[in-house]
Amino acid sequence: MTTDLVQLLTPVGERVENAEFDKYVDAVPPEQLRALYRDMVRARRVDAEATTLQRQGELGLWPSLLGQEAAQVGSAHALADGDHVFPSYREHGVALCRSVDPLHLLAMFRGANNGGWDPADHAFHLYTLVIGSQTLHATGYAMGVAQDGGDSAVMVYFGDGATSQGDVGEAFNFAAVYNAPLVFFCQNNQWAISEPNERQTRVPLYQRAQGFGFPGVRVDGNDVLACLAVTRWALERARAGEGPTLIEAYTYRMGAHTTSDDPTRYRHDEEVREWAAKDPISRLKTHLGRSGWADEDFLADVDRESDALAARLRDRVRSMQAPAPTAMFEHVYADGHALVDEERAQFAAYQASFADAEGIK
Question: Which of 32, 131, 252, 293 lies deepest, with the highest CB count within 10 Å?
Fold first, then answer.
């Protein structure tokens, strides 16, 4: 396995050869490249609209994916329908590729739902805000897939900051020991909130896999074609019973950690400008144009579609009603639970006591 950064498209959109991974994308037709571009543009447009809505007070918080579109969309396009995904809280592009309505994502950050979608409908689990815990959830699920004799794979997303959590190390160990059909996809966006990589690790993150007995590879996370190829390879390993893989998508968080963060306090403008020149969408757009696979009409159609999606989200979010206080007790268990019923009744009585007190006055 290569120890170099896997790259198939340079920052200026030139296709470069790679002896190990070319075969995983050589048969990608122009229409799929256009689909990759479309999904990245849609993801960025949804992200920009959500950020604006938060600034206008319509959302409580929003974690931007700006700059990480290639890592998310490229890896998501490698998944098969039967593969299951465990996200963290920034995988908006993956959610789009798994046909999750982005309105559910915005509603969650508005406080109008607790997830809003059934993970079984899209093979896409609910967002996890507890840093790194989803790696253990994914490992257990993957072990179950193997135990049941299934032929699908599992993929879990997490950031570079999560690798400092013990949960991730435990997940690596369990996945390796039980040969789980699992791909660990780490989006290394250089910053764990305000902590840079050098404060988190002394070795490249992908090398951590070696200590647990499975392969790791670092891919250019701003190269959608390379992310597609490397993830296809890793998922094939998983489905073939060859165990887990760690992919480190080396990318950059162009925006703030969340809308409550001010990145100008801890990073320099020169660094941001350097990464802006490696923009994932511009890279693929240039490649499509040079190859004659995307004309101005196609690009304009993608922009119009993305704008229409953003307008729908804006209108629906602003008209969204707050849920009933007891809604948080729904879907805790698939088939209900006596203790949850008791707690719901107690909470409803507590809420009603305020109305009774108002009546006394």
Answer: 252
